[in-house]
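Practice record 12: protein with 4-nitrophenyl beta-D-glucopyranoside.
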Amino acid sequence: MTLAFPPGFLWGAATAAYQVEGAAQEDGRTPSIWDTFCRTPGRVLGGDTGDIAADHYHRYREDVRLMSGLRLGAYRFSVSWPRVQPTGRGPAVQRGLDFYRALVDELLTAGIQPVLTLYHWDLPQELESRFRGGSAAGGGWPERETAERFAEYAAIVAGALGDRVDFWTTLNEPWCSAFLGYASGVHAPGRTEPPAALRAAHHLNLAHGLGAQALRAALPARARIAISLNPAVVRPLTGSPGDLDAQRRIDALANRVFTGPLLRGAYPEDLIEDTRSITDWDFVHDGDLAVIKQPLDALGINYYTPSLVSAPAGDEPAVRQDSHGTGAHSPFPGAEQVAFHQPAGERTEMGWTVDPTGLHDLLMRYTREAPGVPLYITENGAAYDDKPDADGRVHDPERIDYLRSHLAAAHRALADGADLRGYFLWSLMDNFEWAYGYSKRFGAVYVDYPSQARIPKSSARWYARVAETGELPEA
Ligand code: PNW
């Protein structure tokens, strides 16, 4: 049976600035925390950097033509903060803004809706460094000032592009910024300070709130303002009280630490209790929660794989085999002893288990928890070991299966009442996969890095057909 999506359903693909742009030292751009992290030995596989990446900064016209070939209705991209505001404060660099204006105009001419993310992890290095030196603590997201700087940056970008971009998201996956950046340290800036990670989570929430206020003030009424989260689908290994408690703890630290303030205007009591030996949450000031709980015009959900947890296994160290990487430090302050297990089933090249029911479960959960807020899947996709064959073609039937099964799950959520409005494939093209460098390929379009040639994979042709017809064809 073919599954039809509602008329007007938005079909898109996503990228992020540091992962595709390259041109790291051009037109006034200064280093972000990721430029620094990539240059720290041992942090990124193969010592890879985003210096050149997919050279999208120079090839955006060709890339928009690729998007037209994929029949995309929308393109989700992010703006590089250090390209626009090199020190993270003060006046904007016009050349940086010009690039995004040119990209947006190219998209609009092609009839592709721009969906702009203000922050996809590339904090200006200067904001991370500025508190270092005299004090033991670094700067960055654990500092309240970073949230205030973010609101200024949001106003600058809104002022420059508000006349032509109608769909705005503040942050991409603040969980990764806070807990992979400051607790497990597998992402930039690579710090392993559990109290700082909780402070970072609050200041990211605050940045969203202050940023959303700044956007509202600067943008026309038609503009929509959203955030993209990567909510975890946390399943208990068994129904035992210990395993259920592990599930509750991880759910608090992965999901409710954001959705509590964003949707309900409060941090969860159990989270505050669980983390009491780490922090007294004195960084939450009067009035912050009201600022964070801004009306959302949409909620972006990024989903790849579920997590399977159990109570601490005796004295054994917790095994980390889930999507959060294998770093020595846990990304879950106060729940370091929770054990993670590899869920059964097929795995992608990331080692992530393929489980489309997780996507259905998430969409239904946020249908309940964010009533009246339209949902978008702002990322979903998979890495596979793609290689051109002798004819130069790239066949990726596994990716087609992954996309088909997840779109079928999304369709099931629609049938069950979810107000799902669109889907963005991660990613438009192969790119810099953070700590994994260029070793993992998520693209619908293959990038031959030495030549920068783009080769649409078979999944690109398959997805173009889905986007064109609004229907999921039979297998
Ligand atoms: C997301 N984890 O990253 C990002 O938004 C993308 O930039 C990235 O390329 C994509 O997913 C694929 O990884 C994540 O460890 C990275 O839980 C790591 C995790 C989650 C999301």
